[in-house]
Amino acid sequence: MRMKLTLALGLVILAVLNLGIYRNELFIETGEEVYFELAPVDPRSLMQGDYMRLNYKTAQELRKEFERIRGAGEGEVPRTGKVLVSLDERRVVSFQRMWNGDPLPLAENERLLQYRYSDGWQVHVGSESFFFEEGQGKAYEKARYGIFRLGKDGRTILRALADKNLVRIEPGMSE
């Protein structure tokens, strides 16, 4: 009896994990491809292997807006929420304004973007790091944009990095 219960519990856990994987794969396939301009940060960590720490211009714009809201006494900024962003002709994301939850029609170039606001000053709109194969750091030094999938609900998932011309960076086997 105990073996059957353990087996059943294992199957349930596997089913839940596979459902999560399926949902993420579906999101990657159906999400809209957009570009977030990168903002400067310290790009390397020798302790954790090769990766690039990421920050985004959109997050900096949001941080300034949140500081303006607090400074003007307009209330507290929610820890999580959505904002309206616009896409330019190259599909690069820019902050437009706060979204108050009203079901307003979005313009053709407007989208909703989820954010997280923490520690009183950190604004998160996407992945905070991009890991790459050892020895590939030189190729990623020219990264200027993050390539994301953006869902209708405002969620994002980082897919790759791109250079100043929005060309996906695909380094060779070794540099």
Structural summary, described in words:
The protein is an alpha+beta fold and 175 residues long. It folds into two domains: 1-30; 32-162, no CATH class. The protein is built from three helices and ten strands. The strands form three sheets. A four-stranded antiparallel beta sheet has the order 3-1-9-10. The radius of gyration is 19 Å and the shape is globular.
Topology:
Layout: H1 2-30, E1 32-39, E2 51-53, E3 55-56, H2 57-71, E4 80-87, E5 93-98, E6 110-118, E7 122-124, E8 129-131, H3 137-140, E9 145-150, E10 156-162
Keywords:
four-stranded antiparallel beta sheet; 2 domains; globular; 3 helices; alpha+beta; 175 residues
The radius of gyration over CA amounts to 19 Å
Mean pLDDT: 84
SS content category: alpha+beta
Kindly state the percentage of residues in helix.
25-40%
Approximately how much beta-strand content do the residues carry? Answer: 25-35%
How many E-type strands?
A: 10
Terminal CA distance: 57 Å
**How can the largest sheet be summarized?**
4 strands, antiparallel
Which runs of at least 5 residues are low in confidence (pLDDT < 50)?
Answer: none
Count of DSSP-assigned helices:
3
Tell me the series of helices and strands, N- to C-terminal. Answer: HEEEHEEEEEHEE
Biggest sheet, strands in spatial order?
A: 3-1-9-10
Number of domains: 2
Overall shape: it is globular
